[in-house]
Amino acid sequence: MDSLWLLLTPATMAAILLGTVFGVVVGALPGLGSVLAITIVLPFTFTMDPVPAIALVLSVYCSSVYGGSVSAILINTPGTPQSAATTLDGYPMTRRGEADLALGWATMASLIGGLFSTVVLIIAAPQLARIALRFGPIETFALICLALTCIAGVSRGSMIKGILAGLLGLFLATVGTDPMTGSVRFTFDVFALSGGLGLIPVLVGLFALGEVFSRMAERHGGTAQIEGRVGFKLAPLGEWLLRWKTLLKSSLIGTFVGILPGTGAATASFIAYSEAQRSGRYKERLGTGEPEGIVASESSNNAVTGGALVPTLALGIPGDPTTAVLMSALIIQGIQPGVRLFIDNPEIINAAFIALIICNLVMFVVGALSAPLITRVLRMPEPLLLGMVLVLSVVGSYGVGGKLFDVLVTLVAGVAGFFFRVCGVPVAPIVIGMVLGPIFEESLRQGLILTDNDFSVFFSLEHPIALGLITVTFLILAWSAWTEVAAARERRAAA
């Protein structure tokens, strides 16, 4: 009840409503995506209370995943990678003049998938938290090592570049004052760096400005052309009952894939779509405008949102690049995910659960009411859109600490993010390294103090949990390396 009262305040409800509208709009704009949406609002959470701030970020997270389906259905261009599978059947329905019905299928499937994964989150996360209570510094170090393996998951096809980017993120996390000794390191006699690199300016630069610079370099702005009137229409209940098995299986797939660190909603949607092609009631009609394809894609990618929060909240392991940014929002509020989160902040975490349910319900209402409006936003000239993102990014970075140095960091990070994109270097590992770097270093050094600098104890039977986690870490790395080598051999053979 305390958590419910924390939510039922004008500030929190306004944050959910505004965050949902913003997330749907940004998600519907092709090429922007959930990470960019959360990155833009992240600076504004700095001066907010914890519950409204968390509610804002969660609402943007959920609604931006759904928003990608709007442009996928209307203009055959997924607003986010998570909705790529939605284009396969959504756009054919639009060409048949059934865009309103396709949006209804996508919105309801997103609502059901999101609520399903939220229930799993509420049930599973506390159980994982009870296990986490046994964690000391050594166990925490092993867990962070496991968490860092998600760099391999977000670096498919460019593993070496991803690992180097992750190492760069770990290095950037060490800039500033040493937490153990108080000495200053890697500042290069720049006083402004003595407090470390701000997480928000780096995030905004890498994702938001990097994307803006990248799209500016492509030099092909334009507008989306959508003919006809677009509205919103729900299919009859009987049509949903014919496809309930696909809806349930896709929600399960999305939740499970979300729990696995480093996978993501795009993977889940294609797995669910493939399963619908294998066992769906209308499998032979998929790809021709069959609503079952939309149900499979949208219920699974929205189910990932709750599933990805299970390792994020209970273990401090980001489930995907989006939750890595979301986890940084919690850290900014002084809330450290993992280990003791459910013990130290029970009212806040329960408020987050309830907020997630409300966010999904508000997302449905906003999606139903905003379909005609979003169509007009999609016609906005791209240069105007990129200019708005640029202004919001710079203002947000400055507003965090009121320092021009943060704006300079944002610009430098934006240029770096642009060159990373040009060179095919994934930027998500940098964020993961920066988010996990401080606790990685702290737990390692505390563990070495406890063991009198004997690192071999970390791998001994005296700490079975740590040994098990490190073993799993090595197995994941070995499997990732093997699949990367196998994929390279296949590419060479095909060439």
From TrEMBL:
Segments spanning the bilayer are 12-42, 54-75, 102-124, 131-154, 160-178, 190-209, 252-273, 348-371, 383-400, 407-440, 465-482
**Residue limits of the DUF112 domain?**
14-432
> Per the database entry, which stretches of residues form a coiled coil?
none
Q: Enumerate the UniProt keywords alphabetically.
A: Membrane, Transmembrane, Transmembrane helix
Q: Which Pfam families match?
A: TctA (PF01970)
This one is known as: Tripartite tricarboxylate transporter permease
**Protein source organism:** Marinimicrococcus flavescens
